[in-house]
Amino acid sequence: MIDTAEILKILLRQGRITEEQAESVQTAMEAEEKTPLMALQDMGLLDEEVVYESYAQHVGLPYEDIDSYSPDPDLIRRLDPIMAQQYQIFPLGFDNGFLKLACADFVDLKTQEDLRHILEANLDFIMVNSRKLSALIDTFYAVAQENLKDVMDELQTVEEEKGDMAVADEAAAAEQAPVIRLVNMLLMQSLKNKASDIHFEPAEKEFNVRFRQDGILVHQPKIPKKYQGAVLARVKIMSAMDISEKRVPQDGRIKMKMLGREIDFRVSALPALYGESIVLRLLDKASVSLGLQQVGFIEDNLRIFNDLIRKPNGIILVTGPTGSGKTTTLYSALNEINRPDRKIITVEDPVEYQLDGINQMQVNTPIGLTFGAGLRSILRQSPDVILVGEMRDLETASVGIRAALTGHLVFSTLHTNDAPSSITRLVDMGISPFMIASSLQAAMAQRLCRTICKNCKQIYRPTEKILKEVKFPVEVAEKITFYKGAGCETCNFTGYKGRTGIFELMVINEEIKELILQVKPSYVIADAARRNGMRSLRDDGFRKVALGMTTIEEVVANA
Q: The pTM is what?
């Protein structure tokens, strides 16, 4: 996968484009949210084959155009579908005793060694067009439920050949090739399904696996109970946990390359009645590299928030429950303002996504590195922008407010139900109303709503009774077309695919500052904010209903 952060520099060094052309491409990327490859092609500067060939030269690999390639069925069978999908490789043929494998980026040495061992051959890696490579892999190595059945059959064969030790000795069983393939397949399938979590859940007589997709848990094909220990041990080995310890909770992390991307899984193991319950949180950096429009901002909210994040100082708070997309919004905001001339430092618990060009610190409470202590240290690093993972106590909030008052832009989160309640929460912590009024630029509540599946989207008309019950604006309802998803294989027959944010953005103006100084309750502040243009979560959700993005039912369920 082409490193988009480096490709313009590479093309400049190789003399493929000029400085002026590079600046034009950069401008097009920022203005129209294009990748470098799209911008280069749209501007007629370079076609994609030239760009890929340049990148291959940069990483030191030969390049081939695979348009005329004829797949060899015998050769294709040598490579396991899970391996092909996970590492994004494809066998092209033998040349002088070496098996040529197509790839879209440099394959690290450990993976090369693993592949040599699995394929029992000397290997040569050839770089190809990543789009064409993905198409080849999807055509010849589709990973579906049939593959799960194949893995189960392999497990059964191993058990028959090696006896009960294949499953009784969990540590040994976890190193069996079918178990490794099974776990890798589940991890990869979760990424392809755009799941946020994988849940391994032991029950009395069965072993369940569920993916959280668009906020909803979806059952995956069942794994026989007798393989439970081996599968859980494999996950614990991958995440560097103690597989012999099953009495206390453990935390770990898995970092691996999948589908051409660096993916992190945050792993939590919890002792339960019928075995350890293990949950993997999927941390895909691509999900926090979105523009603010992709996060869900529309029209005036997009303009206002863009202006706020470019303020020289002050605090911007994002509120909402766990899983409401606060991290994605904040990281997308940092990406928007991340420039070479600006120093951005974060203190988080934990650091979930590693961002290029941003200094990130992880809280370590047992040694005294709390949010407050970390924030005080950060201020000695001369930052321009600070992200505090959460203002969870008086110490952190006080230091954050002092940072905002001394010329820093501070982002942070709170757990409140709406934007006006964030002010009440800060007062309850012990922060002076004067300090809040002087430092707070804005507070924003957010939730996530599922979006209508584009594959089965259809027109419908909600009843007048429902419109009245949810207080949907009558004047709007008369002018718009309502949509819902009929349900299809693409959306797992839910009618929804993907999620978008809905927002309640409260900008602190003079009227609201005065109410803060008077310590007015949150409902009074909310009334003033609405008079000054703030839309409630439900109102913003209804705007997205009017745009055909989601449904009334989904907005009401979340706002």
A: 0.73
